[in-house]
Amino acid sequence: MSENIHKSHNVSRLMYHFVFPTKYRRVVVNGEVEQVIKETCLEISKRYDLYFLEIGTDKDHVHFLIQAVPSYSPMQIVKIVKSITAKEVFARCPEVKKKLWGGNFWSSGYYVGTVSEHGNEEVIANYVKNQGSEYKKLFRNKGIEGQLSMYDYV
Questions:
Q1: What is the per-residue pLDDT for 147?
Q2: CATH code for position 119
């Protein structure tokens, strides 16, 4: 679950639900790609003030529930996550690049929605789960305090 992020001049709890479809909606998200995306996102959270609360896949798109600080706009979060994960997937799973005809991993489009701290994060998690036919939860964070040891691996 999310917690307040304390910085020197602000306290925030900003959460976003992102959906990134793969290029051409190709079914390229398999077990190996899922592992690369999960590991890469955990590394991103070490370097940026982005906290992945949940990551889930549905073969041709990936859902992210991300908590961020106010200095990051949703567009900046999209750029960070899409660019770094795509580079890692292509580097570690070269067969994916062939399936996508040497193009991009992610399509140019995406969905973003805000999640309220006064609403229920579980409602969003259930919504994400029920969107596709083969949703698979890769990761769920049990709480953030800036320490990776707090993450719960699925």
A1: 40
A2: 3.30.70.1290
